């Protein structure tokens, strides 16, 4: 099926400004297109991709502000879970009782003398 990139972009921009949309996958699902089509049209670091991401990030900020207001008035594990989902690393660390950070560089250093014993 042939898609019109400009029409898809117009719809993606509109959706990215909609409250409750936080991830590119939300837009992909709403447009009923394959992720490969989305990323073919809007590759990472392209102007189109950056604009969509900026709108989604603004949605996250608005939602986090609302969540903080609601959290200050009471408890809610569902709210905390959502905040962890859309928050940045520092915010997730603050909310977590257990945080494991993996900083593997992709190399393994082994001392052959360790094999002898």
Largest sheet: none
Bulk shape: flat
Number of distinct helices: 7
What assembly state would you assign to the polypeptide chains in this entry?
single chain
Strand content: under 5%
Q: How many domains is the backbone divided into?
A: 1
Mean pLDDT: 84
Please bin the fraction of helical residues.
55-70%
Q: Ends: how far apart?
A: 63 Å
Can you count the beta strands? Answer: 0
- Uncertain runs are none
Counting helices, strands and paired strands, the structural category is mainly alpha
Query: Using only CA atoms, what is the Rg?
Result: 20 Å
What's the order of the H and E elements?
HHHHHHH
Give the arrangement of secondary structure elements.
Blueprint: H1 5-16, H2 24-31, H3 35-41, H4 47-72, H5 77-86, H6 89-95, H7 113-116
